[in-house]
Amino acid sequence: MPTSRPRPRPRPRAVALAALLAVVAVCSGDALARVFPFGHHTRSVNDLGNQFVPFHARLWDLLHGNADGGVLLNWSSGYGTSFLPDLGTYLTSPFALLVGVFPRDRIDLAVYVVTVLKTASAAALMTLLLLTLRGGRWWAAGMLGGSYALCGWSLAEASYNPMWLDGLIALPVLCLAAEWARTGRRPVAAPLLVAVMWVANFYTAYMATLGAALVLAARLFTERDDRRTAVRALGRAARAVVLGIGLSAPVLVPVYLGTKHAYPGWDRPFAAADWSDVLARLLPATYTFFTPALFLGTGTLLLACALAFQRAVPGRERWTWAGLAAGVALSLQWEPTHLLWHAFATPNGSPYRQTFVLAGLVVIAAWVSVAHGLPDRRALAGGCAVLAPVAAGAGLSTLITQWTYPLFAAGLVASLGALLLAGRGRRWTVPAVVLLIGSQAGQAAATTAFVDRARLNRLDHYAPWGERQQAQADVVAGADEWPRTRTDPGREQTTTNDPLLLGGQGGAYYSSHTPAVLTDTMRALGAGWTSNGRAVQSLDNPVTDAIFSVGARVHRPRDPYQAWNAPDDRPVTVERAPVPPLVTVRPPGKPVPYGRSPFRNQEKLLGSRVYTVPGTALRAAGGGAVADRGTDDYGVGRGTYTLTSTCPAGTEAYLWAPGLFGSARLGTAQLDSARSGDDSARLGSGSARSGGGSEEVWFKGKLPAKRAPVQRLGTVGGDGAVRVTLTSTRAGTVPHGAVGCLDRARLAAAVAELRRTGANAVHVTADGVRAELPAGSSGTVVLAAPRIAGWRCQGRPADDYLGLVAVPVPADGAPVSCTFRPPGLRAGLAAGAGSLAVLVATGAVLAYRRRTGAGAGAETGTGAGAGAGAETGTGTGTGAEAEAGTGARAGRPEAVHAS
Asked: With a threshold of 0.85, does the pTM exceed it?
């Protein structure tokens, strides 16, 4: 009769040690660098501040019932975008839910705590995997598990891409599932774990799945399983992966299709890193964006390098794990395998996102080296002999810093001393453990601090939530009248995702899933962008505000945190204007397609002529004419230019210069303190805002990565002359039709007509809109939201009206109903339901067999080559040693270390 025995006590101690080591090292490093939350330096670098913190703020709103929209549709960003792909990419980790227990104004702290907990969990789970693969010293397992979680990839890259840390967790979890498949255990739990990991972050879970497959292959080879057993194990593993991915399909399929509908980002070919740089990244205190962050701590590297010389390890096992680690290291540098690791698409950013898999394999190799017994002096000498050329080759790299070799040398001496002390007997164990783990923690903390500072010096970064964000959020909340009209948090942004962070319903949006239709439409209307079109900016323009029903627009001082912004003491204000409802009715027939001029494109979408677009002349500072670049643009270089034109007196002059990096000033303008006449009202008072009157207006166009928006220069004087002084700081372009002069009276008349014919009532839900139209309406109903894939109106796919959602006016005068369902959701739900049915059937069969006694070994692998003892620890397979952690294997007695 199968009997169970308790897990050995060293296992929880090892797990706790690994988690503690990870937390202490990360927090100590951050404190040493004086970054948030331990100092005044922000940790919100790059996409952490620009994407991930705002998206977690959106999750907080969802959890507390405060979000505009729901799980499927996000009304806050991009004038209405799909949210399920973003949710599945950034927020479906179980850890992400913890942000809900923090106050919203502590969202930065919440994300930091989640990051640290993920790192600690990765350490604990890797430790559990090591003790499952083979028994050994618990403190060595804890140190190596912590080393894995503190690898350079985790500290340098995943720490500010917190969803990648789910991949760091996924690798040991999926390896455990693979071990269950090898021993024929837990056929229900394994697919569930796969599903959780793939839902948490499909991208790194894909890489972790490849890594787990390599570990499974190595285990089958080193454990000498016969061919029939190996084939069955591979079949069980494949079944677990297929079912797990199927269970995650309701999230995965919409995410995948979301990438297909997204605006294309960077197209960067793969370039292998210099080998000296690769070697340098094995050492502490190095950093660069385009090389693999391979740091693991000198102690771990020493044990891994000693494996080839460790005579206590059987030859097959020794060379399998050493060769596997070396092969994966080479695969990082070869383009075909690089593409395989990254799902056949070179990533837009760091090209070595799979590095954590190599880190895991090196840690397993180090564990194999020490689990069979402490390496002797010969093995340690061999390990040092391997490390010596590594350190020498790294010296050729420019990445080596003043701290690299001192930290490396100190870690090597400490690790050697600790291992030699541990081999002298049990009474030396405690000082050896303290020395070894202290060395690992010190190197990791120092590397964390170094990387924290290096990122701040090299990457864009953003202030954590403070007085500026709170004041902005309060003003937005006070002005919000959604869904009657939208409130845009403003063009003077703190992050590109301000609508998620601060509230409101703006045009700004930055995501890996930014829809191409949104980017194309906003570009046609004159909006700016960064990140090659993935980060669309709000467009501060009264015509587009009318088009998108923005009834309140917040104006705020330029962000003082960004050093390039000029000092700005204006208060936060709100500009209001009457605008049409979200749903309007346009005349029958198809509209004229967009052209090149954003002024004419705005008129097409508005349905009225409101701009004067005059001819222009551009001259250099000396008075000479400027040559054209292409057929439609002037070419400018570094210097000062004068752009002249003529417009009706009293109109508002706007400049369109998407390729200009510099500034513009309207020379004949009068400084005006109000902008929109009788229809506008402001909260508070202050000087003219940026872009008003004769103030200098900045343009930051660097096509194609950065596109400057259409901006207001001021009011045209009584003589109608428009004279704009342009200062360009680098080569760029200025369009021939760069000037547009807005007639406010015409705009007011156009808005009044759209309000008269627009919907009488608009009801907005978490996944759609319902509108009641005036009696006798005819033509086309237009919803002021981008026509992204997934919109259906009146039971059929919605039409496209110059990039917006549209549908013919119902002939019977019935209300118009439009709903949104992300593409792929129905297929994903069907796949998930099918996988769940198979899994439930599997569980039912197993339960039936247990009740009837017909297949007592079904759960433990009877009939699959594992035997009943695989689960209970009484058989001859390796499941016994894996569960008990004793290191005993049939036919090969091995040392048991409990110290």
From this structure: yes
